[in-house]
Amino acid sequence: MGNYVVELKNVTKRFPGVVALRDMSLQIKPGEILGLIGENGAGKSTLIKILTGVHSADEGEMFINGVKQDIKTPSDAKNAGIACVYQELNIVKELSITDNIFINKYIHKKNSKFLDYKAMHKKAHEVMLSLGQDVDVTKPCANFGMGILQMVEIAKAVLIDAKLIIMDEPTSSLGEKEVKQLMKTVRSLKERGVSILFVSHKLEELFELCDRVTVMRDGEHITTDAIEDMDNDKLITAMVGRTLNNQYPKIEGKRGKEALRIENLNSTGVLHNISFTAYHGEILGIAGLVGAGRTETFQAIFGAFPVDGGHIYIKGKRVTIKSPKDAVKNRIALLTEDRKGQGLVLSQGIDTNLILANLSKFTKGLWLNKEKIKNNGDQAVDDLKIKTPGLTAITSQLSGGNQQKVVIGKWLNTDADIYLFDEPTRGIDVGAKVEVYNIMNDLVAKGKCVIMVSSELPEILGMSDRVIVMRGGKIMGEIDRHNEGFTQENIMKAAWGGRI
Amino acid sequence: MESIINIKKILGKLGPLLALIVLSIILSFSSPNFLTINNIMNILRQTAVNGTIASGMLVVLITAGIDLSVGANAVLCASIMGMLLDKFGITNPVILIGAALLTGVLIGCINGLLLTKFHLPHPFVSTLGMKNVLCGLALFVVSTKTISGFPGSITWLGSANLFKRGSFSGIPIAFIAMLILFVGFHVLLNKTALGRAIYCAGGNLEATRLSGINTDNVLIFVYSLSGFVCAIAGIVIVGRSGVANPSSAISPYDTDAIAACIIGGASFSGGKGTIWGTLIGALIISIIRNGLTLLKAASDVQYMVIGIVIIAAVFIDVTRNRMEEKARRLAGK
Which band of pLDDT confidence, cut at 50, 70 and 90, is reported for residue A63? Predict the structure, then answer.
């Protein structure tokens, strides 16, 4: 005891339907940089939120300097000396650096309610200087780049004398120079005895910076080792090392003619020369980490994300898609990742949602064809096995799986040829997942083209005929199902920046 | 459990109608003049302008928007007719009515364009600005004069009555016209694809856009439609008073219309509301005004009561949303 700044013992956290953290233990030594990695959904975010008091654990204990403590609120965490620099910075851009650093802990003039800006500016400048930033702290934060703003966040942590600073993907929005400066700062913090929990998607950074690294998977602790004992392959195997079971009822289709060809799709800063071809009668999987540009690629094809260049060919013919309306006209369907925000009109019934993407099919002249809507709706509820008290039931009352089926039903009603499925099984239960897979099999059997983005590797491997891997807005490579390299390890390697 | 939710649902739907009936019964007892045929016709007459404007407001509210320029738009349309009559001596009703309708639609269309193509954050700001512009414009086009002397073909809509005989004042044409308009709105909202698109755009704009519906066009149509009914209301106003009075642009037409919609079940968060609910809402407001006048309440009291009713209506809207949310959670758990 007493050897650790922060120690978690057997922490479990459940959310409705999922166990986000299972029996998780973690030890952080004073003055060490501990790396934390894991796939999307491995439980890193939940772990951070437990440490910072945003969530409280259902089971397990937390020790600060060997003393058991209950961290129930963010201010408990702050008092315990735990600070976090989130990926999304908490900066009020209109206010000065000083104001941001001293937010909620202003220095007052002696015996008065007035703020002592002179003292605050002086102190803010000192702290920033100690982080290697000689900046004018009186200027609004909007004047500075991401690198400096991150330092402002770190300065906040330094000011409350944090013993542990958690950094969640700190380099994801930084340039190369800023990353170097950040690493320097992190090392100097370490020398001052501050511990750092460094969460990153970039292996090379972990090797450069960390003393030890912890790997998480499916909400569990997999391994913690000194960085010297680790290499790329070991880390990746630890991250993905689960076995495939047959929850994927894959039926291989017959690959037909070219359905969709993308050439050099570009969107400054987001997508770089995206080119690929998808065929009728196949499922093309797109793998990659969160932020790899997969959703943006889909939205760009669908006319819902701005592009600076590139061509789209459907059945060999070049088409112009400027809006979702154009995309639907070209018989493309997009099942969005955000079901509630972008897929459904939650306040409306199943019947209305089902016809929304193809209203003209359900009108006779000016009027809605109520009979056709009802017949079609009943059929869809039957075919897709939507569990509902009735066709007019408001969709917000359905379960996630049934909601997803309604969205799929909406697109089936458009008779689309090309189906873009963005995380089609996110947040739905296992039974409904299999039903969604079966719908995909049906589509492929009918000669449709299905392209699926998924962050669940087993799903990608289980259902795709071919997989392309994206990273940082670029395509890293492509693997065919019948290739012997069609493994989680290879895909992960590519997703983390390696060669296939 | 389910039956309780159903009872609540029915109460929620019939609530406004119930309020209307209770209010009428109370007023029947407190004032002997309330439940007379001529007073009822009077109430219908008073409902026509607000109801007409509220129909457009309803459609805007369904898309989760708001149109604060409605009253000023109606008065501007009246003033445009006044200008053509006064400055150019035009008495041809086709030209006058055409000009009014064109003005109303154009203003509505601009509101829609400001929202969709100029990306103004919320129509509250743009239509509030537009209201002031239109107030000024209404004064400008008639040089701040009140114009009278409209031909009978123009004033007919706002002043004529059906079955007028002996002491019976007759059924106001303006109210009948409003009812016909409401039937049209009912058909639009419930029987057409555009109607579905309007509800869906209000329920979830992004999902609707990503379903391949041109939501910009839907919104522009909705605000243009609001402008169109404002023009009709403007013509009714001219008919009722016989004059085009530009300074009446500051009358609380907009708040009355919003109140009618909200009392009738529409919501600021969009996606819901019916035209028949709005009819009841408009009637409730007219009855309160009428009843207060019969009870000899001065205008100060009237203003305060209407103000409180509006706040209460919004409160009811918020409470209703929270209750529905709760019911959904219970049902969905």
Answer: very high
Residue B2 reports pLDDT greater than 60? no
Q: B212 and A352: CB-CB below 8 Å?
A: no
Residues on chain B touching A348 (C-beta within 8 angstroms): 199-200, 203, 271
A349: Cβ contacts below 8 Å, ≥ 6 apart: A391, A392, A393, A394, A395
How many separate helices (H) and strands (E) can be counted in chain A?
Answer: 16, 22
Q: What are the start-end ranges of the H helices in B89-122?
A: 93-116
Residue from A330, A331, A339, A342 whose CB has the most chain B CBs within 10 Å, to mutate: A342
Give residue B333's pLDDT. Answer: 41
- pLDDT tens track for A425-477: 887 777 788 889 999 999 999 999 999 999 888 889 999 999 999 998 999 99
Q: Which residue has the tokens 């990503």?
A: B210
Which amino acid makes up residue A165? I
Mean pLDDT score of chain B: 89
Contacts of A186 (CB under 8 A, 6+ apart): A33, A167, A196, A198, A209
d(C-alpha A367, C-alpha B189), whole Å: 11
Say yes or no for a CB contact (<8 Å) between B192 and A367. Answer: yes
The 10s digit of each residue's pLDDT in B145-202 is 999 989 999 999 988 888 888 888 889 999 999 999 999 999 999 999 999 999 999 9
| Distance of alpha carbon B120 from alpha carbon B31, whole angstroms | 49
- B2-332: CATH class: mainly alpha
Per-residue pLDDT of B72-107, as tens digits, reads: 999 999 999 999 999 999 989 999 999 999 999 999
Confidence of residue A390 (pLDDT cuts 50, 70, 90): confident
Q: What are phi and psi of A51, to 5 degrees?
A: -65, -35
Structural Rg of chain A based on CA atoms: 26
Is the distance from CB of B88 to CB of B242 less than 8 angstroms? no
Of A324, A345, A362, the CB nearest to B204: A345
Chain A to chain B, count of Cβ pairs less than 8 Å apart?
89
> DSSP readout, A212-240?
EEEEEETTEEEEEEEGGG--HHHHHHHHH
The answer to whether B254 and B131 have CB atoms below 8 angstroms apart is yes
Out of B195, B207, B328, closest to residue A345 by CB: B207
What is the ipTM, given to two decimal places? 0.81
Alpha-carbon distance of A74 to A90, in angstroms, equals: 14
Instruction: Quickly tell me which residue has 């945003």 as its tokens.
Output: A54
User: A469 in helix, strand or coil?
Assistant: strand
Give the pLDDT band (50/70/90) at residue A381. Answer: very high
- Residue B5, pLDDT > 60, answer no
Which of the residue ranges A158-167, A237-246, A287-296, B296-305 would you say has the lowest mean pLDDT? Answer: A237-246
Q: Which positions ≥6 away from A132 have C-beta within 8 Å? A: A151, A181, A184, A185, A188
Looking at the predicted structure, is the pLDDT value of residue A51 above 70?
Answer: yes
DSSP A385-413: T---S-TT-BGGGS-HHHHHHHHHHHHHT
Q: Which residues of B touch A (CB under 8 A)?
A: 191-193, 195-197, 199-200, 203-204, 206-214, 271-272, 328, 331-332
Banded model confidence at residue B139, pLDDT cuts 50, 70, 90? very high
Q: Name the residue ranges covered by the structural domains of chain B.
A: 2-332
Return the half-sphere exposure (C-beta side, CA atoms, 13 A cut-off) of residue B16: 29
Domain architecture of chain A: domains with CATH? 6-81+162-244 (3.40.50.300), 257-496 (3.40.50.300)
| Measured distance CA(B48)–CA(B61) in Å, rounded | 20
Strand partners, A9: A61
N-to-C CA span, chain A: 45
